[in-house]
Amino acid sequence: MYPASFEYSAPQSLSEALGLLGKLGDEGRVLAGGQSLIPMMKLRLAQPGHLVDINGLKELSYIRRDNGHLAIGALARHADIVKSPLVPEASKAMAAAAPWISDPLVRNRGTLCGSVAHCDPEGDWNSVMLAVGALVVALSSDGERTVPISDFVVDFFTNSLRPGEMVKEVRVPFPVGASGGAYNKLERKIGDYATVGVATHLELDGSGKISQAGIGLTSVHNHNLKATAAEAMLIGQEPSDALFAAAAEAAAAACQPSSDVRGPADYKRAVVREYTKRGLATSLAGTRGEN
Amino acid sequence: MEIQVTVNGTAYTRDVEPRVLLVDFIRTNLGLTGTHIGCDTTSCGACTVLLDGQPVKSCTIFAVQASGASVGTVEGLKQNGALHPIQEAFKEHHALQCGFCTPGMMLVGSALIAENPHPTDDEVRWAISGNLCRCTGYMNIVTAIQAAGAAGEGS
Amino acid sequence: MTATHPRTTPEVGGIGHSVRRKEDSRFIQGRGNYLDDIVLPGMLHMAILRSPIAHGRLRSIDTSAAQALPGVVAVVTGELMAAHKLAWMPTLSGDTQAVLATDKVRYQGQEVAAVIATDPYIARDALPLIDVDYEELPPVTSPQQSLGADAPLIRDEKEGQVDNVAYTWESGDKAATDAAFAKAARVVEIATHYPRSHPAPMETCGILADVNPATGQATLYMTSQAPHAHRTLFALVAGLPEENIRIISPDLGGGFGNKVPIYPGYVVATAASLLIGKPVKWIESRTENLISTGFGRDYHMKGELALDEKGRILGMRSTVLSDQGAFFSDAQPTKFKAGLFHICTGSYDYPAAYVSAKGAYTNKAPGGVAYRCSFRVTEASYFIERLVDKAAHEIGMDPAEFRLMNFIKPEQFPYKSPTGFIYDSGDYHSALKLAMEMIDYDGWRQKQKERTDGKLIGIGIASFTEVVGAGNSREYDLVGIKMFDSAELRIHPTGKAILKLGVKSQGQGHETTFAQIVAEELGIPAGDIKVMEGDTDNTPYGLGTYASRSTPVAGAATAIVSRKIREKGRQLAAHLLEASADDIEFDLGKFTVKGTDKGVTIQEVAFAAYTNHPQGMEAGLEDVCYYDPPNMTFPFGSYIVVVEVDPSDGTWKVLDMVAVDDCGVRINPMIVAGQITGGLTEGFAKANMQWITFDDDGNCIGSNFLDYLVPTAWETPKFRLGETVTPSPHHPIGAKGVGESATVGSPAAFVNAVVDALWSKGVTNIDMPVLPHRVWGAINGVEAKP
Asked: What is the pLDDT of residue C226?
């Protein structure tokens, strides 16, 4: 109901924030949207000693073009991503996923970077990020480093940040040629976590063959899962229903869902198969400008 | 720690522990009990307030985070003795029964119609999908928000 | 008078007007007065420590660390409560329930200790500092397991309890039913579990107990749907003199039956206030509400329908097993251990039925009768409407045709059912036919056949008969208190009025609708009538609001007390008009001398009651009525749902839904429609997503809103409402209850629709909630738990 006590700082500059995080190490925790962290604190599942509230760092709320990438700053809220015209240009999967994050009130506060850092296997954003090959910019008072998302997402609620680091930005490469994407999320109601979520991303080369393929899966493993075998099947091939069906089969085989209140593992695999097929079809239509 | 928050246009300076939730600050420290608590998992929206104009769940924000910001609660809807069109519409269209979810619903509705005075059924339902109601079945809430939007345009 | 043609003007706002609600003023301004809004000087805050395990022996409790936390005023354990003979309390079903555990814990979430502190945050900080040593015992997680040979004895503290049976009960005529089955051309069976569900009103339960040490007065602000009954029980249980107890039930943020039981938290807070001498507030969290307070349903039902060769029903048998949790604390009339489940004969005409019911203890929260159920009519209605639908499908008859063929006919009312109910009035054929017309039933059947894109259309009907308005003193009592209800009315000199009731609204709009009854009877504008409920010092004794009883019982009392006042008014009018009382007529607020235009208004009569009453007559214009209803009322309706099922992922959505309700005369059509819409949403919720379940260790799954799924506006379908009006012949204004009809009738309509869609795939039943994985499992012939 109520969190345990903690120390609180609201730095007014990035350097102040980084200095604090560096000093606090494991005792410190970044507070951005707080829509995942605060609920955990209220249940006392998380009891950070010192919160570093970065909401004063308004300069981090950007969503902008930067050197061939869509750069999403640490304070860009889910609601901002829903509204941004740059997002569908970078990734239709992102545009499809954004409105389905939690509920509208949470979207007004929660941040994409926060979700990415949180590494909740039932969170949607990391599946999309894995599908589009995003990069995570980690920042500390020692400097900045860029980590590919597949290295960043390590395990169950575990990322590869070092002590004193925070996520400053997530970067999504703008596609070069024809591209499309989708996010298919099965949830029992708005605000529920995904029973299963499938992010798909396709790019075609000049001859109509698949040059990039990304499939990211939600809630079917102890972290968001990149279906690499399924992706490999698609690269260099002509898109077709049969190809997509085979990739869907591979995606279903790769996941390891648990049997729980949202259903048995076999059911979730069946949905992964179905949603991967649907997602690839939608993504293909996207490459043709049909959505 | 000391914070300064403007609530419904009035500035307050208070000393509060960092862990105090904004909803408890509003209800207990400021005595404004129109904002309600309906759950403990950020699921129900009964605690909705406007934070710098945006509807948010005040149970999932610390009061210290609202320092320097402007908060709007249900008590702030009535201006200069006149009910807000959304309040009139909720009464006119029987959009409340027990009244517990109503402040949150009205605040979300008022924010929606400020941006989009003629929302469709789906647009309203989408906007209030973070607010639970157990009594009404939502239909009259949708009608009321649409009616308030239409009335607001005319005035 | 018919419901659609009000007799009074809109300014008076009598029956039939959709008068806008008086109570809305404060709610829309955020000025409701809910329990947690109430603050008293010196108030302390209580938090409850609850058992993390489902079954275990309590070996020791060490509260010293908790007591040492700055801000903690007291820590209460079962031992302290036992010293005051309050460790156990009686339930509404004749059992006992632990207030704070002394010997064992018997469900996850059970109350073990309580901390009283200066601040609610500190009270919560103290809870983990209480060191409890449990010896875990194997949990019993189903009634079937509970009744098995090796089951551990849950209620080992109860003298004479040798097994886990809470009660047995039966109704109907077994021999006649057996004979009917012997003649049957066909027997249709069903086995279904109505899962555990929870009312989950938006406001949780709580109390602000203020036992004043100087005066001995105990003022208990309490989330109570039945404040008078609760006060009497507090007096009997706590030994507090009844005249010193005042229960004030303030604005309630919903109830739905969740605020009828007396919870341990209420008792502990009151005891704490008494011992400490300061007000103590306890308001539970949502998790506490879901894990420990009065749930509804959890009924395992088996049934059979005997049919002749034409598909006419000859008889019905039903065997039900209820999961009562750790204590038998159902809120229901004493005589009926299975509530009114024996209405499960439904809307159909046949002579023989037999119901056999048993309740079993399990290691789960206690309860069972709650959540808009009309005392288990939700279970009964679901049971018969699923069984009837299954029968129609099995014999290849259209489910609407099957119902129309078997319905009780209008000319058969009042109808005596095989289990002893006397249905007061009904016209089932008209309701179903209207619903079929409104939804274009034949059109949908056609579309169902023509669908080729892989998605499946299903059409589901439910034609329910409800039984509400408990209840006549011959048969109904709640812990011995007869189930009358009351209305006290005083007309002021200026012609305004105050109406005090023994019932208690939790959102049903009583401040408006009951004023409308008086407006109808006396012609005083509804807006001039103040309605008071909930304060036991200031209202007449009543049994409260639940099971849709307010309009049938207190509504009748209101009409009758108004008529009593009208009678005195006639005498006063005669005096004013210098005529004989026999020559005075009354209509629409005016007393006139027969055959003349000489008259006085009710307002003038009221003034005269205080300023110009005749010698020998008492001054004032005030009366009270305690109403003992002669019978229950039987609202009914037909609901039709059209769904589309996607076999690829098991999801389904509602394409259209029509609900035709008949609750007799409608006092306020707008409010009735609101009650129905809310109830249909609850029915949808239960059919689609909402339940509490347990794992094999007795852990409760569904103890917060992440797991207990309440639909948002996005999932909730739109509903189209229709009405027929068949007044109750015995109710003074012809009204029946309606608050629960939609929750009672609609779940079967949704489930019947999904099963109808999948019948051709060999699916004959899916239990609620019909979750996507269950649909998928049913289609693919695999069991898909949970």
From this structure: 97
Is residue C356 over pLDDT 50? yes
Instruction: Give the strands of the sheet with C456-465, arranged side by side.
Output: C456-465, C636-646, C651-662, C720-723
Give pLDDT, residue C783: 87
Q: What SS3 string covers C156-205?
A: CCCCCCCCCEEEEEEEECHHHHHHHHHCCCEEEEEEEEEEEECCCCCCCC
For residue C4, name the pLDDT band (cuts at 50, 70, 90).
low
Measured between CB atoms, does B66 come within 8 Å of chain C?
no
Cα angle: C405, vertex C406, C412; to 5 degrees = 110
Which bin fits C379, alpha (ψ -120 to 50), beta or left (φ > 0)?
alpha
CA-closest candidate to residue C52, choices C121, C129, C136, C116: C136
C397 to A86, C154, C344, C349, C451: CA distances (angstroms): 57, 47, 22, 18, 21
Cβ contacts of C160 within 8 Å, gap of 6 or more: none
Looking up tokens 């609101």 gives C674
* Span between the terminal Cα atoms of chain C, in Å: 52
Cβ contacts (< 8 Å) between A192 and chain B: which residues? none
Interface list for A 60-79 with B (CB within 8 A): 79
- Residue C319 CB-half CA count within 13 A: 6
| CA atoms of A123 and A117, how far apart (whole Å) | 11
A189·C714 Cβ contact <8 A:
yes
- Among B84, B146, B51, CA closest to C29: B84
Instruction: Tell if the CB–CB gap between B60 and A38 is shorter than 8 Å.
Output: yes
Residue A124 tokens read as 């949607």
Half-sphere CA count of C113, side-chain side, radius 13 A? 26
Q: Which residues of C touch B120 (CB under 8 A)?
A: none
The residue count of chain A comes to: 291
Percent of chain C with pLDDT over 90: 97
Q: Does B15 touch chain C (CB under 8 A)?
A: no
Can C243 be counted among the known catalytic residues? no
C700 a catalytic residue: no
Q: Tell me, what DSSP letter sits at residue A263?
A: B
Rounded Cα gap, residues C385 and C380, in angstroms: 9
Residue B103 and residue B89: Cα distance in Å, rounded?
A: 13
CA distance C35 to C37: 5
pLDDT, tens digit, 9 for 90 and up, residues A43-62: 999 999 999 999 999 999 99
CB C131 within 8 A of CB C62: yes
The tokens describing A132, both together, are 């589009």
**Which range among A244-248, C332-336, C683-687 shows the weakest confidence by mean pLDDT?**
C332-336
Determine the pLDDT at residue B76: 98
DSSP letter for each residue of B98-120: S-SSHHHHHHHHHHHHHH-SS--
Number of Cβ pairs < 8 A linking chain B and chain C: 175
List the chains bordering chain B where 3 or more Cβ pairs fall under 8 Å.
Answer: A, C
Verify whether residue C373 is a known catalytic residue. Answer: yes
How confident is the model over C612-659, as pLDDT tens digits? 999 999 999 999 999 999 999 999 999 999 999 999 999 999 999 999
Q: Is C558 left (phi over 0), alpha (psi -120 to 50) or beta?
A: alpha
Block residue for tokens 């209509």: C587
Q: At what angle do helices C428-439 and C441-450 cross, to 10 degrees?
A: 50
Question: Phi-psi region for residue C469, left (φ > 0), alpha (ψ -120 to 50) or beta?
Answer: left
Can you point out the beta strands (E) in A178-257? Answer: 178-186, 196-204, 210-218, 225-226
Report how far residue B31's alpha carbon sits from residue B26's, in angstroms, rounded to the nearest whole number: 6
Does residue C2 have a pLDDT over 60?
A: no
Strands A28-31 and A50-53: parallel
CB contact under 8 Å between B60 and A34, yes or no, is yes
ipTM: 0.98
